[in-house]
Amino acid sequence: MSDATWDVQDGAIVERPRNVRKHPLLHRIYERHDELLAEQLPPGRTLELAFGQHMHPRADVGLEGWPSNVETVRKPALAGDARALPFADDSFDALIGRRFLHHVPPADRPEIIREAARVLRPAGRIALLEGTPGLYRKLTKGAAFRLGLLEEDTDIYGHLSETAVTDLVSESFEVAEKRTLGSPLMLASISESDASARLLDLYERTQFVKWWTLVVGERPESGA
Questions:
Q1: SS3 of 119, please?
Q2: pLDDT tens across 82-115, in order?
Q3: Structural domains in the chain, sorted by start
C-alpha cells in the first residue's frame, strides 16, 4: 500500500501519486509509455501538465497541481491550474498530458484542451495518455480495490472512453494518432516483486486489452 493522498481544488482532484517504482512491471510499462509519447513529439520546447512525481524526459517546463511535486523535480516547474495556463500564446512546440484528465470535472476538460491549443505554436502537437474504462480494466481494478491491493480510489469522475478523449482533442486539433494500449498482464502490475518486470516483453506482445488510450493532436497551421 502507498501513502497516496488527495484533495479537491476548485472541483479538480489534486493527488500525490503513488510510488510507481514499488510496482516494477508498472514502472516499466510507464517507461514504455514515455517512449511512445516521445515518438509523437516534434522538436522544440515542450510543456507537461500534471507531471506528478517526475516529468517526462522530453519536457522542458512542467505545471502541477500538487505544490510539493514542484519542489522535487530538477526541471523548471510551477504550481498552477491547467484550465488557465500561465503562459503566453504560441509558447511551446509540444504539450504532454499523462493520465490526469480523469481527475478533472468533465465540464472543465474542454477548457484545458483549448488552453493547450492557445499556448502551442501552429503545427505544435498535444499528446495525451488516458485510462480507458474497458471491461477488463473495470473488473481487474474493482477486484483489486475490494481485496485492498490498491489504495483509495480517486477516480470520482470516471475514466474517459477512447471516443471521449478523441472528441476532446478534435475540438481544437487535427487528430494525428490514436492508439489503444493494454494487456491482460496488467493484473501482474500490482505486484511489488522485481520478477514481475520480466513480463514486459510478453506484455508488449499481448496488446489486445483496452486499458489506456493515446491520442495525438496537431494544431492547424494559421489560416488553415
A1: helix
A2: 999 999 999 999 999 999 998 888 888 999 999 9
A3: 6-218 (3.40.50.150)
